[in-house]
Design goal:
Elements (H helix, E strand, L loop, with lengths): L1 H9 L9 H15 L18 H14 L3 E9 L7 E6 H7 L3 H4 L13 E4 L4 E4 L5 E6 L3 E6 L5 E3 L11 E6 L6 E8 L1 H8 L2 H28 L1
Antiparallel strand pairs: 1-2, 1-9, 2-3, 3-4, 5-6, 6-7, 8-9
Helix pairs in contact: 2-7
Function: May be involved in spermatogenesis.
Subcellular location: Cytoplasm; Nucleus
Keywords: Cytoplasm, Nucleus
């Protein structure tokens, strides 16, 4: 009990006292951080062979977007039979999480901008909608016009086609497809993934040692409780 109280005190902030339940709850949080359970993900495009050039490119990027290595933004402009032009910027990662993409990859459905996407514009009626996604925030800049701010690393994507570069850690590629009038992909390498990649070895080792030291003390306490209670 004395050791439990000591460990509880080490896990508190000034003016805060932990009881046993709160201690074990925080212990579990530390264990989850040190030994995270990998979340399974399903690749919709796996074992499929898309024929449309856009779907081929998106299939290549599906895994990277699901793992948050990339955050791809899709600009699509449609001009269907009724001559009603619709365009918009789509957060690919967000649409992957909220939609079944099998019909898209199989060519049974076309990718249309929605009013819930980053931007949506209906040219005939002049309807425009701007939304914040889980990855991007549209920003109107007086100099550069529309910018897409990455929420995670706070870097901007410049969607101006005349811009020399689309932004830091971002590449731009135009896709030519008979199914779509105009398509551009903006691939942004997530800053969070890069920071994790470039954390100094000494810093990582120090964090691991500190966490393992705490866990060792906690496990020792649990062992003593199990054997002497």
């Amino acid at each position: 009990d004395l050791k439990i109280k000591f460990l509880c005190a080490r896990m508190t902030t000034p003016g805060e006292t932990l009881d046993k339940d709160a201690f074990y709850q925080r212990l579990q949080i530390v264990k989850d951080l040190l030994y995270p359970i990998p979340k399974a993900y399903h690749l919709t495009s796996e074992f499929l062979i898309p024929f449309d050039p856009l779907m081929q490119e998106l299939a290549i990027r599906e895994r990277s977007n699901r793992l948050h290595i990339l955050s791809t933004v899709i600009f699509v402009r449609h001009n269907p039979r009724l001559q009603v032009e619709v365009s918009g910027y789509i957060d690919y990662n967000e649409r992957l999480k909220t939609e079944d993409w099998q019909p898209y990859f199989e060519g049974k459905r076309k990718l249309w901008p929605k009013i819930t996407d980053l931007t949506y514009y209906h040219w005939k009626i002049g309807k425009m909608q701007v939304n914040v996604s889980s990855n991007y925030e549209p920003v109107i800049d007086s100099k550069h016009g529309l910018l897409l701010k990455n929420i995670h690393d706070r870097k901007y994507i410049n969607v101006d086609p005349k811009a020399i570069t689309p932004g830091v850690d971002t590449t731009r590629i135009r896709i030519y497809s008979d199914a779509y009038k105009h398509v551009i992909l903006y691939d942004h390498e997530n800053g969070i993934s890069k920071r994790k990649k470039f954390i100094g070895r000494s810093e990582k080792e120090a964090n691991k040692k500190q966490t393992r030291r705490f866990l060792k003390e906690a496990y020792s306490t649990l062992f003593l409780q199990t054997n002497f209670n």
